[in-house]
Recover the amino acids of this structure.
């Protein structure tokens, strides 16, 4: 579920829309698959880190009321008579926005896109490059975040390179091999942290061991 949530946000961010409303319908206390605290943390990060406008609605009626309110606000700011594909300079006269005419592109899509174009960009891709498949496969490894995956791919462009980087540790003592492998040199994230020992061990066991029991 976490990966699907991240993928959905990534596709929305790639559409070119500056202001995305992420609407969540239902009660978080009634969820059984994800704890309420986890959902609250995810929505908080979505709002402040991804810059989405997060709105919680209790049911379908509440959702319809919220979307209707957004529709009314848009019509009040951009009257229907002015939204029949006019020139951008005429779309937002000063009585609606105090800034220059390009404010419409700044506040909304940059540049403005049609719904068909948005739909095309948002839909799931069917074909992926070898590099993209490599990264998608890494997401299946426990404890690998997006930042960690990006760092690993930066150092080891393919699975062959990743596996080759661990080949030289076969003759070393089992208690030392994870700590001296090249994985321990990889740094990730804004804080430039090193990959933790558990993550390195999981990767090593996955690619080098016949026993996949990870403690």
């Amino acid at each position: 579920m976490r990966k699907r949530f991240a993928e959905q946000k990534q596709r929305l961010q790639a559409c070119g829309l500056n202001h995305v409303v992420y609407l969540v319908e239902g009660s978080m206390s009634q969820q059984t698959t994800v704890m309420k605290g986890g959902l609250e943390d995810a929505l908080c990060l979505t709002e402040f880190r991804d810059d989405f406008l997060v709105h919680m609605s209790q049911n379908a009626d509440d959702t319809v009321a919220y979307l209707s309110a957004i529709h009314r606000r848009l019509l009040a700011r951009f009257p229907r008579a002015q939204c029949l594909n006019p020139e951008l300079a005429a779309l937002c006269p000063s009585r609606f926005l105090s800034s220059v005419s390009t404010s419409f592109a700044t506040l909304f899509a940059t540049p403005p896109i049609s719904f068909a174009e948005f739909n095309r960009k948002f839909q799931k891709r069917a074909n992926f490059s070898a590099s993209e498949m490599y990264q998608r496969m890494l997401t299946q490894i426990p404890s690998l975040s997006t930042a960690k995956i990006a760092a690993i791919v930066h150092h080891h462009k393919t699975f062959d390179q990743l596996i080759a980087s661990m080949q030289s540790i076969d003759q070393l003592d089992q208690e030392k091999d994870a700590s001296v492998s090249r994985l321990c040199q990889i740094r990730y994230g804004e804080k430039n942290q090193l990959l933790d020992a558990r993550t390195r061990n999981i990767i090593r066991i996955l690619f080098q061991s016949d026993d996949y029991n990870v403690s």
